Amino acid sequence: EVQLQASGGGFVQAGESLRLSCACSGDTISRYGMAWFRQAPGIEREFVSFIRLSGDRTYYADSVKGRFTISRDNVKNTLVLQMNNLRPEDTAVYYCNAQRGNLNYWGQGTLVTVSS
User: Fold this and answer.
1) Between 53 and 45, where is the model more confident?
2) Extended strands (E) in the chain
3) Rounded distance, CA 104 to CA 99, Å?
4) What pLDDT score does 55 carry?
5) What is the per-residue pLDDT for 29?
6) pLDDT (average), residues 80-91
7) What is the pLDDT of residue 3?
8) Partners of residue 114 on adjacent β-strands
9) Which long-range contacts (CB under 8 A, 24 or more apart) does 5-11 make?
10) Which stretches within the chain are classed as H helix?
11) Taking Cα atoms as reference points, which of 99, 107, 102 lies closest to residue 34?
């Protein structure tokens, strides 16, 4: 079974950057489409970004487009989210997700707090 371990969250000032990583064990991420979601207090979990299995296409929520970059390292079995120019509204717990057919795996979240 796939296990996902997200890391890299922290407390930053608005305008700063963070790099989230998601390490996969139990399978290789090259078999999965991979995504990041986030959940702020009192708000439903929302989509942030997705990268196709092949890595040739990426998708972003409008709110992060141009600031966040998703990438995958199939050799290191790791998913990355580079977050630049962070805003207070980016404050949330960030979750990584692996998808293939009916399979859908979630990691535990990593907290990102952006102060104004």
Assistant:
1) 45
2) 3-7, 10-13, 18-25, 33-39, 46-51, 58-60, 68-73, 78-83, 92-100, 103-106, 110-115
3) 5
4) 85
5) 92
6) 98
7) 95
8) 12
9) 5/107, 5/108, 6/94, 6/95, 6/96, 6/107, 6/108, 6/109, 6/110, 7/110, 8/110, 9/93, 9/94, 9/109, 9/110, 9/111, 9/112, 9/113, 10/111, 10/112, 10/113, 11/113, 11/115
10) none
11) 99
CA atoms within 13 A on the CB side of 94: 30
Give which of 55, 15, 12 is closest to 33, Cα–Cα: 55
Instruction: Give, as one character, the DSSP assignment of residue 93.
Output: E
Spatial contact of 29 and 74, defined as CB atoms under 8 Å apart: yes
The pLDDT of residue 54 is 86
CA–CA dist 11, 34 (Å, integer): 25
Provide mean pLDDT across the span 28-53.
96
Q: Is the Cβ–Cβ distance between 71 and 52 less than 8 Å?
A: no
Token code pair at residue 67: 């600031």
The pLDDT of 2-29, averaged and rounded, is 96
